Amino acid sequence: MTVSRRLFVTAAVTTAVAASSSSLALAVPGSIGTAAAAAPEPPYRIPIGPKDSPDEVVAKASQVRPTERQIAWQRLEQTAFLHFGVNTFTGLEWGTGDEDPDVFQPSELDTDQWARALRDGGFKLAILTVKHHDGFVLYPSRYTKHSVASSSWRAGEGDVLRSFADSLRQHGIKVGVYISPADENQYLHGVYANGSARSQRAIPTPVEGDDRAGESSVRSFTLDATDYGAHMLNQLYEVLTEYGPIDEVWFDGAQGRIPPEKVETYDWDSWYAVIRALAPNATVAVRGPDVRWVGNEGGLARENEWSVVPVKDSGNGSVDYALKYDAPDQGSREALAEARAVAQYVQWWPAECDVSIRPGWFYHEDEQPKSVEQLTDIWFRSVGRNSVLLLNIPPDDRGLLPEADVARLREFRERIGRELPEDLARGARARGDGSRPSYAVDGDPDTAWACPAPSRGTLTVDLGKAREIDRIRLGEEIRRGQRLEHAVIEARLPGGSGGSGGSGWSLVTEVDTVGASRVLTLATPVRAREWRLRVTGSRGAVRLAEFGLYRSRV
Asked: Which of 1, 33, 260, 514 has the most C-beta neighbours closer than 10 Å?
């Protein structure tokens, strides 16, 4: 996993698949089009252009809304990645594609151990590298011999994906898959980057002795793709139809390590379309329509991370950043104004922060996991900054998560529990202008205190007695968008600047963006009974779903 792999991270597709069931022996009737029966999506993407004034672009951004799948993904907060494959046994980070499949020999594979460790670490979804850039596949695919079926491991009958999916579901964890767009093995076989034109392809493509032939339940599609694009579609089809519900499909923009005159233009539109048809609730990240890469592999979001960002068309049904992928600002008023010249849309495209618990993405015996302090800092700078953390924990060559990593995950969860042990504002008496101030302290992300007007509104919480606070957690009701641009948080203290009798409101901290989750850390605990938040800047009437007050036990 290197930064260069993601320089092409993009998202967005508007096509859906209208497909029908048929036997593979018959003509394939599926086609690309708009699914008339589908429920209308909220406006997660709105057109803009250079003729829009800066204020008009901001107004449009304030109207962008997430889809239900994006909301569900954002609430996961903490997800896991498991890099496992031939690289685990060769010591490489990027394989060559000509590995002997027999090198894959996990002697003690135990995906239940993976699932228990992830559950105990607080993870709600985990993504397996079903295929990395080398092209080696962790399930017995019909479309390549570079897979577990060609290894003597378990006499060629092993299926890591099957074990992974079953174990995760048994432990209440959602299942995600990563299928690399790059494929060194298919390049060696003349399929990847062979210069073939896009043409209509029958998916799934029948193969000799196909065990699906004649099955009435087989759904089939006609999709535009290159030779390699069809290969990817066939593997996506296998994964999405034979392993139960898939909750996330993760892509990057990796290009194979091939001669510069060679290139494979990925068929994003067709890949997205078949995912939407076969796994309509699955999030597609980070080169996909739902989630974007934050721009670094350190797990760190920007201080102010907007979920609504400007994007531009990049071909084949996808869009890309209008600004640089690692720009320090992706969504402020200034960023939106700067992007007008090249952007075609403002889009709900929240950030995912990926990082490995070890220096490498695959297991290496000489590496050690990050400390609890490092992981905690990453959590506050990802989940605490309106993003989702994607933490990689690589299984070792036994097929187990290393004992040190398992212990570190448990310690990490315990540490976050001590950082935010109890919301002292939950159920407290709340008052304020606007409507339903109690909804900001009821613990429900789907209810919210509504400010009376843009850039104005005050919410006050009475804890009943003076309490020490050093952590503050905020959250907007993102189903209504992301709008807050600035707020101040104050406490009523003896000797404060307001009120009479020497007691008034004193500034504790300030915040700009919030989004789904913003966690603020105070350098020194503040003791007060009454706390308030004043909205002083926004791009529309703010709806605050969470005003949490905590005293850490660290």
From this structure: 514
Q: What is the bridge-based pairing of β-strands 503-511 and 174-179?
A: unpaired
**What angle, rounded to 10 degrees, do the helices at 111-120 and 403-419 form?**
20
Instruction: Tell me the three state secondary structure of residue 220.
Output: strand
Q: Which phi and psi angles does 312 have, rounded to 5°?
A: -135, 155
Q: Has residue 326 got a pLDDT over 70?
A: yes
Considering only CA atoms, which of 287, 265, 95, 267 is closest in space to residue 193? Answer: 265
Say yes or no to pLDDT of 101 above 70: yes
User: Residue 479: what pLDDT?
Assistant: 96
Task: Name the strand (E) or helix (H) holding 130.
Answer: strand 125-131
Contact 10, 316 (CB under 8 A): no
Give yes or no for residue 523 having a pLDDT over 50: yes
**Is this structure's pTM higher than 0.90?**
yes
CA-nearest of 472, 499, 466, 502 to 487 is 472
67: amino acid identity, one letter: T
H or E segment at 59? helix 54-63
Average pLDDT of the residues of the chain = 92
Confidence of residue 538 (pLDDT cuts 50, 70, 90): very high
Per-residue buried b or exposed e for 131-163, using 16+ beta carbons within 10 Å of the residue's own CB: bbbbbbbbbbbbbbebbbbbbebeeeebbbbbb
Is 80 exceeded by the pLDDT of residue 19? Answer: no
Closest CA to 286 of 344, 350, 330: 350
Task: Calculate the alpha carbon distances from 50 to 56, 136, 306, 339, 340 in Å.
Answer: 11, 46, 21, 9, 5
Alpha-carbon span 393 to 298, nearest angstrom: 14
Tell me the C-alpha to C-alpha distance, in Å, between residue 479 and each of 16, 73, 448: 23, 13, 11
- Residue 363: Cβ-neighbour burial (10 angstroms; 0-12, 13-18, 19+): buried
Contact assessment for residue 101 and residue 148, using Cβ atoms and an 8 Å cutoff: yes
Contacts from 499-505 at CB under 8 Å and sequence distance 24+?
505/532
Residue 260 DSSP code:
T
Give the Cα separation of 235 and 203 in Å (integer).
10
Nearest to 541 by CA among 499, 492, 489, 484: 484
- Give the per-residue SS3 of 306-320: CCEEEEEEEECCEEE
Q: How confident is the model at residue 216 (pLDDT cuts 50, 70, 90)?
A: confident
Match 């919030």 to its residue by tokens.
514
Q: Are 312 and 343 in contact (CB under 8 A)?
A: yes
Element at 507 (helix H, strand E):
strand 503-511
207: helix, strand or coil: coil
What is the rounded CA–CA span in Å between residue 457 and residue 537? Answer: 10
pLDDT at 467 over 80: yes
